[in-house]
Write a structure and sequence with these properties.
Distance between the termini: 58 Å
Oligomer: single chain
Number of strands: 12
Bound molecules: flavin mononucleotide
Structural class: alpha/beta
Low-confidence stretches: none
Shape: globular
Order of helices and strands: HHHHHEEEEHEHEHEHHHHHEHEHEHEHE
Helix content: 40-55%
Number of domains: 1
Strand order of the largest sheet: 4-11-10-9-8-7-6-5
Radius of gyration: 22 Å
Length: 405
């Protein structure tokens, strides 16, 4: 009895959390946890479309694991009582060096889709990128997000369509264009091949069974307006309102003849910054800088296009040596923690950008999940800087990190 009393005096019982979303979120500590919950809640085909990569998925894995090949050279006894994580990205002050990458078909993770992610980005003050293959329109996203927005361009063979999208983006206040240059044809994502996966998922017996074991997702999917490619409704190949095979669709619509001349063309129809998304060599980074674009995203599309493309974090230092200071360098792929941002910026990146992490968060817990994810990145960035003895982004230099091998 005496012991019980002692025990009771030190144990404090938590109040039961009534909100199921908050309960779910309270058990999530990192991106892997968001991924595990998303895997449980989403139909397998949807989860694999988000989570998967091209062929043997080696680039997908290396993008993430290569960050673990770096270690810090932390400094001590510097005043870190106050940390300023803000920096300048594409000429604009941002609260931290992080942006959200464009992802097509965001609404398959949660019916709010792009609107939820854009609202969460605005609350944090970080840039949100809307995909050409987005499932909310340029205008609808702008209506809920007055923060920094970028528009990602895929070049349709029909240039009239591209021009129309670009002028809609301009009218709606998007500030930069990301021209994706790694998708002449769609990479072979073999998880999707095995499932005969279409977008939106076709309803067959397997989908119904899958739906029955994922009731939350299924109700959300059925209760809301049909998912379509909201920005290309006038495209010849359709807007996705009837199920399409993504690789057939993309391979017939996208222009395989895309070249540096088209970068000039894009410039001629757009006044703001242009960023080339999908640069993977120093040579192309040099050409990009010469072409006069404002930025590049070092990216292999999250390992979804060419397998055995280089791990993104390994590209940063050589590219920064060649073009750093002339154009902004965004590290896109495999960023899973605030400490990854510290590593990338120390190596010479201007900022980082994330895709899957926010899709996992959206699938796991909707908009509140994305809020928690962005808090996780922000606090991880701040804490890592403090533990490394730096208190401002411009103190992140190559002296702070080294490769383990
Ligand atoms: C489900 C999914 C859809 C994507 N859709 C697009 C897209 O429409 N356009 C594009 O340029 N990149 C797209 N990407 C690539 C992302 O913009 C980004 O490059 C990639 O996710 C970064 O890697 P990470 O997932 O490791 O953060 C997509 C990625 C995923 C996971």
């Amino acid at each position: 009895m005496g012991m019980f009393n002692t025990f009771r005096s030190v144990v404090q019982f938590r109040e039961f959390e009534r909100s199921p979303v908050k309960r779910r979120l309270s058990g999530i500590a990192d991106v892997d946890d968001f991924r595990a919950v998303a895997k449980r809640r989403l139909p397998a085909g949807v989860f694999d479309y988000i989570d998967g990569g091209a062929e043997d998925e080696r680039s997908l894995v290396r993008n993430v694991t290569a960050f673990g090949d770096l270690e810090f050279r932390p400094r001590i006894l510097n005043d870190v009582s106050r940390v300023d994580t803000s920096t300048t990205l594409l000429g604009k002050r941002v609260p931290m060096p992080l942006a959200l990458s464009p992802t097509g078909f965001t609404r398959i993770a949660n019916s709010q889709g792009e609107l939820a992610v854009a609202r969460a980005a605005q609350r944090k003050g970080i840039p949100y990128s809307l995909s050409t293959m987005g499932t909310r329109s340029i205008e609808d996203v702008a209506a809920v997000c007055s923060g920094t927005k970028w528009y990602q361009v895929y070049t349709w063979k029909d240039r009239g369509l591209v021009k129309e999208m670009v002028s809609r983006a301009e009218m709606s206040g998007y500030e930069a264009l990301l021209l994706t240059v790694d998708t002449a044809v769609l990479g072979r994502r073999e998880r999707d091949v095995r499932r005969g996966y279409t977008l939106p998922p076709k309803i067959g017996l397997d989908t119904i069974i899958d739906g029955a074991v994922h009731p939350g997702w299924t109700l959300d999917f059925l209760r809301n307006d049909p998912i379509t490619f909201a920005n290309v409704s006038s495209a010849e190949g359709g807007d996705g309102s009837s199920a399409v095979n993504l690789s057939q669709y993309i391979n017939s619509q996208f222009d395989q003849a895309l070249s540096w001349d088209d970068v000039d063309w894009l410039r001629s129809i757009w006044n703001g910054p242009v960023v080339l998304k999908g640069i993977q060599t120093v040579a192309d980074a040099e050409l990009a800088a010469q072409s006069g674009v404002e930025g590049i995203m070092l990216s292999n599309h999250g390992g979804r296009q060419l397998d055995d493309a280089p791990a993104i974090v390994e590209l940063i230092a050589p590219v920064a040596q060649a073009v750093g200071g002339r154009i902004d360098i965004i590290c896109d792929g495999g960023v899973r923690r605030g400490s990854d941002i510290v590593k990338a910026v120390s190596l010479g990146a201007t900022a980082c950008s994330i895709g899957r992490p926010y899709l996992y968060a959206l699938g796991a817990a909707g908009e509140a999940g994305v809020d928690q994810l962005l808090d996780f990145f922000e606090s991880g960035l701040t804490r890592t800087m403090q533990l490394c003895g730096v208190n401002a982004i411009d103190q992140l230099t190559s002296e702070l990190v080294s490769w383990k091998r």
